[in-house]
TrEMBL record:
Belongs to the VPS36 family. Component of the ESCRT-II complex (endosomal sorting complex required for transport II), which is required for multivesicular body (MVB) formation and sorting of endosomal cargo proteins into MVBs. GO terms for cellular component: ESCRT II complex; late endosome membrane. One of its GO terms (biological process) is protein transport to vacuole involved in ubiquitin-dependent protein catabolic process via the multivesicular body sorting pathway. It comes from Erythranthe guttata (Yellow monkey flower). One of its GO terms (molecular function) is ubiquitin binding. Component of the endosomal sorting complex required for transport II (ESCRT-II). Its main location: cytoplasm. Residues 19-164 form the GLUE N-terminal domain. Gene3D superfamilies: Pleckstrin-homology domain (PH domain)/Phosphotyrosine-binding domain (PTB). Keywords: Cytoplasm, Endosome, Protein transport, Transport. It comes from the Eukaryota. This is Vacuolar protein-sorting-associated protein 36.
Amino acid sequence: NVHNYHSQSTMAGAFLPAAELTESGRPILKPGEVECSLLSAVDLLSEELPTFPLLKSGLLILTTHRLFWLPPETNNRTNPSSFIPLSAIQNIISNKKSIKSMFHSPRIRFQVSATQDGRIMENGGRNSVAITLVVRGKTDPDSFVGKFWEAWRGRAWEATGSASGSGSALGDAGGSGSGPPLAVRAPV
């Protein structure tokens, strides 16, 4: 059982890319990436993949590019901070309101592309895996879901040219490499 616990502890990294954090424990964002919303006390799991780790009561941070899951304690080595690229998401599954769901913690489900062995990454693979977020905090999951849809539909990661830019005019507007990298364009 001790062995089982240990193998469980290193599991998150086998499925999700690790998130880089600042010394104060905030995610290091990419150029052009903006925080949109956060939820506390969120479990992240996959009911389809029995080997997928259950990440319990972490902080969920939604940005324009990624969905971060940070463990409850900053020094938590068992489940390191990780993220899901929004570009890997194939579908956000709308929750059906039911009597049963009123008595359970709200759940947010979405499908991501993954490799054969369940690794989630940008343009990850041919397989599809459903991920479930269980919201245990007192926050409003509905407004989070609205922002989640917005960020996913907004496809901001394409504009910054991090994905294989599909020749869009937005990708060229970033001025690849010219000028100071920290330049922030004023809102129009």
